[in-house]
Amino acid sequence: MTQDELKQQVAKAAIEHVVPGTIIGVGTGSTANFFIDELAKIKGQIEGTVASSEASAERLKGHGIPVFDLNSVSEISVYIDGADEADPALHLVKGGGGALTREKIVLAVADKFVCIADDSKKVDLLGKFPLPVEVIPMARSYVAREIVKRFGGEPVLRDGFITDNGNIILDIHGLQIVDPVAMETELNSIVGVVTNGLFAARKADVFLCGTANGVEVIEA
Ligand code: 5RP
After folding, report:
1. The pTM is what?
2. How far is residue 55 CA from its own chain's centroid?
3. Which of 85, 103, 146, 184 is labelled catalytic?
4. Does the annotation count 146 as an active-site position?
5. How many angstroms separate the CA atoms of 133 and 158, rounded?
6. 39, 20 in Cβ contact below 8 A?
7. Cα–Cα distance between 104 and 87 in angstroms, integer?
């Protein structure tokens, strides 16, 4: 099976977690795109969605799926999104697509987080995938120095990339993330950091992992 076929497989499986008659939180990235395409097939069964990026909002609207502003929504039954890395406890690294802040905000409102990814994303220890950190542009150099001082690693500016919120991304290479919850909290305490791509304090509740032998369901 190709990686895309594995992603498509978990996108289909995620439809079982869609709660009829409710608002669904929708993530960003290639796996989330497959999910949006599956969601289109049952769009009459949901009230609508909240999107974690402009790109996902456009794709949802293209399918005729209602997209609500988060400020007009008080409940999201389930948030469905991909990941760049998932450890055995279902702590995640996300933000490869640069949508980490809006992803975290939509997730904060959701009752449940279903992560969908192919099995290449499964790791024992987070950190091989460079950890994205969204930063206010004028704080770039200060934040990079603080990161090196506190955690080591090598922050690299994501060249030519501006987030939907008008900020930059520093990708931190060379980390070994032994305590994801502590690192998530400390990174967010650096002035100028908007948020970071560790989804550990709020991790996935269910991981639908696409393998050549079918979808493996891992629960936290
Ligand atoms: C975007 C994300 C994505 O979920 C993550 O990058 C995985 O993407 P893909 O499904 O394309 O592998 O966090 O900000």
Report:
1. 0.97
2. 14
3. 103
4. no
5. 10
6. no
7. 18
CA distance 200 to 56: 23
Ligand 1 pocket residue status of 29, Cβ below 6 Å: yes
Rounded to 10 degrees, what is the CA torsion of 34, 50, 183, 11? -20
Task: Quote the CA–CA distance of 86 and 128 in Å, as a whole number.
Answer: 11
Length of the chain: 220
For the stretch 140-184, pLDDT in tens is: 999 999 999 999 999 999 999 999 999 999 999 999 999 999 999
Output phi, psi for 62, to 5 deg.
-60, -30
- CA 113 to chain CA centroid, nearest Å: 10
Contact 117, 68 (CB under 8 A): no
User: What 3-state DSSP class applies to 178?
Assistant: coil
Atom 4 (ligand 1) nearest CA: 82
148 and 187 Cβ atoms separated by less than 8 Å: no
pLDDT number for residue 26: 98
Q: What is the pLDDT of residues 99-119, one digit of tens each?
A: 999 999 999 999 999 999 999
**Tokens at residue 14, please?**
């995620």
Q: Which of ligand 1's atoms lies nearest the C-alpha of 28?
A: 1
Alpha carbon separation from 121 to 11, 70, 211 (Å, rounded): 15, 29, 11
* Residue from 3, 8, 31, 134 whose mutation best tests the ligand 1 pocket (most atoms within 8 A of CB): 31
The response to whether residue 94 sits with its C-beta less than 6 Å from ligand 1 reads yes
